[in-house]
Amino acid sequence: MKYLKYLIVGVFFGIVLSKAEVVSWYRIYEMFRFDSFHMYGIIGSAIAVGIILIQVIKRNHLKSILGTEINIPPKNRSVARYLLGGIIFGLGWALTGACPGPMFILVGHGIGVILVEIASATLGTFAYGLLRDKLPH
Amino acid sequence: MIALVMFTLLYFGKSFGISSNLATMCSMAGAGKTVEFFRFDWTKRLWNLVFLIGALIGGFIASNYLTLYPGVDLAAPTVRALHELGIEDPGAEFVPGSIFSWSTLFTMKGLIILVGGGFLVGFGARYAGGCTSGHAISGISDLQIPSIIAVVGFFIGGLIMTYLLLPVILSI
User: Fold this and answer.
1) The whole model's pTM is what?
2) ipTM of the complex
3) Interface size, chain A vs chain B, as Cβ–Cβ contacts under 8 Å
4) Is the Cα torsion angle B19, A67, B58, B94 positive or negative in sign?
């Protein structure tokens, strides 16, 4: 039962991203062409609200339901991995028109072939794990 | 709404990041035996997979019970560009049916987009330490410099694909 709350938040997330059309291949293509404000409005407002919520958390030292201090794990300082990894991710994002979350949501939409994409993405993650020591970070 | 999801997960004592589930799936499949990177207790990350299964169910609910119009209303220049790329009926559905189908999977185009694209997403997300949810939303909301660098990378890659590579791939 302790997992139920995550399932509910997940369902909410899936519905929101569907209704906002973020899961659409076309919307990603349109975004990278800068033809529409649609995606920028959604991501931009999520970030704007996110910044405010996180500032509220930090200034008031809000605790989670576990009683622990809330924090977002800080990322390690580096440029190479974020830029190179980001570029590789961006190439894939514009090609598949979906980042990992929307891939799963699209399976829910009945587009079964996306499962192949997910399997391939898992394989890509595995390949990163294999090559990790050889890549610049 | 998306920020609210992030806030709720933080409130539950977790964080918002979807691509780490792919690493969890590797670990569950036993990748930890050969690769140190996947040697962790995946049961601690099960909550995130449950969240993702929830998202899948959310997609099912949205497409079956909440959607009146199955497509997207795209900007006119985008529609024109898609026509030039040979995509019929842009925006009629969420994804181009000519690409995202089982029959396309075994063509060169399908393999590049579905298998190749998926691979790049999985590889790049882990290399960059996060995807759209972890970097663009969580990371930038927390004003973290690495996340801003990663998102700049997302766009460099995305623009190269959209303007240079995609027209070639779609013409195959």
Assistant:
1) 0.95
2) 0.95
3) 458
4) negative
